[in-house]
Amino acid sequence: MNFELTEQQIAIQETARKFAEEELLPGVIERDESSEFPVEQFKKAGELGFIGLPYPKEYGGQGLGYMEYALAVEEISKIDASFGISYSVTTSLYGGSVWYSDATDEQKKAFLPEVLSGKVFGSFGLTEPNAGSDAGGCITTAVKDGDEYVLNGLKCFNTNGPLAKYTAVYALTEPEKKSKGLACFIVDRDAPGVRTGKIENKMGIRAAQVSEVILEDCRVPAFNKVGNDGNGFKTAMKALDCGRIGVAAQGLGIAEGAFERAVEYMKEREQFGKPIAKNQFLQFKMAELAIKIEAAKYMLYKAATDHDTGKSYGQSAAKAKYMCTNVAMEVTEWAVQFMGGNGYMREYHVERMMRDAKITQIYEGTNEIQQLIIGGALFR
Ligand code: CAA
């Protein structure tokens, strides 16, 4: 296993860091308070090539891999995890829904380039009020009517929901077959019968826009059904395998961002006549967290490398997601604790990071679902 990043990967990492520091750090606290997404910055990320990093150039991508993409999500999430998830959902969950659906070349060319070049947002419509962890329990339907499908249902917790031009909607064309009757549809959000429902008021990732997507006799051209009837569930699972690499990178970035802020603070902050970093308990705890961050990092890079080298990566993605997001929660809690009263205050950033970390343990499959995936494979 090669532990060295290539020159190109280092360049991507540095560009992402600079982008996050210059474009996302200013206003990150205000956007968290006002729940406002930095749309212009997203477009800039598109111009820099970030959104399409792991897709071929002919579909609007950069022809690179998940390793490069993970590095970019990680750097960005050190500063703005809301941006990190919006980016990851667009690239992995929307992009993956088209890419892994057996879409035709014509469909890939119709539904990928605009999104992968960051001109518009994509979102992923799988979850429903009664189909969360049990994703196969969707009841949204799609009925063929001539050259169109008519979709009815409600998708919830849709990241980028209010911003998206395209949403990948998973709907039943054969309801009697339950999850084996799902197909994936690319719904243009200007289509008749689709609208944004309730916009969520969240604990964390407050700048990310998350909403319901309501389909009421929504008419979609038959061309927008990507992949075959019955393939939808597997397509969603494949997109989520990739999405979990993105969430792992987001979690790792949050952990590292909070850790770096805590280190700086502990060197500066003096109590009892010395910097608090001189206390052995605090040093030992920080050492333990440094070890966990490093372990999480290599698990993430392993999952990304498995993806890029054509190995099976569902397991390594689930493990990386579990590890990186639990480390994010642990590190951010300690960062707040070690920064004391200041850590609890908005302007020190780490309280936001702690709120942001929580959702990474929940979305794209709770960490208990990751355990189910990992445990299930052990005894298959
Ligand atoms: N890749 C390909 N195929 C897969 C697969 C994968 N990763 N996982 C399962 N499958 C296939 C199985 O092989 C099986 O195929 P056969 O019927 O041909 O044998 C079929 O799919 C059904 O598999 P299971 O019986 O394992 O399915 P299940 O109903 O028991 O569910 C689960 C498995 C892992 C629990 C799944 O439901 C799951 O991942 N749940 C979590 C859902 C999730 O992550 N939701 C997040 C939504 S997005 C979000 O969070 C919001 C956002 O915008 C950020």
Which helices and strands appear, and what pairs or packs with what?
Elements (H helix, E strand, L loop, with lengths): L6 H18 L3 H7 L4 H9 L18 H14 L1 H19 L5 H7 L1 H4 L4 E5 L15 E5 L2 E12 L4 E9 L9 E7 L5 E6 L10 E12 L3 E2 L5 H37 L1 E2 L2 E2 L4 H29 L5 H25 L1 H4 L6 H11 L6 H12 L2
Parallel strand pairs: 1-4
Antiparallel strand pairs: 2-3, 3-7, 4-5, 5-8, 6-7, 9-10
Acetoacetyl-coenzyme A binds next to β3, α8 and α13.
Structural features:
13 helices; Butyryl-CoA Dehydrogenase, subunit A, domain 3; 10 strands; 380 residues; binds acetoacetyl-coenzyme A; Butyryl-Coa Dehydrogenase, subunit A, domain 1; alpha+beta
Structure overview:
- The chain is α+β, with helices and mostly antiparallel strands and about 375 residues long.
- It folds into 3 domains: about 5-115, Butyryl-Coa Dehydrogenase, subunit A, domain 1 (Orthogonal Bundle); about 120-235, Butyryl-CoA Dehydrogenase, subunit A, domain 2 (Beta Barrel), CATH 2.40.110; about 235-380, Butyryl-CoA Dehydrogenase, subunit A, domain 3 (Up-down Bundle), CATH 1.20.140.10.
- The protein has 13 helices and 10 strands.
- The protein has helices at about 5-25, 30-35, 40-45, 65-80, 80-100, 105-110, 115, 230-270, 280-310, 315-340, 340-345, 350-360, 365-380; strands spanning about 120-125, 140-145, 150-160, 165-170, 180-190, 195-200, 210-220, 225, 270, 275.
- The strands form 3 sheets. Strands 1-4-5-8 form a 4-stranded mixed beta sheet. Strands 2-3-7-6 form a 4-stranded antiparallel beta sheet, covered by helices on one side. The chain has a two-stranded antiparallel sheet with strand order 9-10.
- The chain is globular and about 80 Å long.
- It starts with 6 loop residues before the first helix and ends with a helix.
- The model has no long low-confidence stretch (mean pLDDT about 100).
- The chain binds acetoacetyl-coenzyme A.
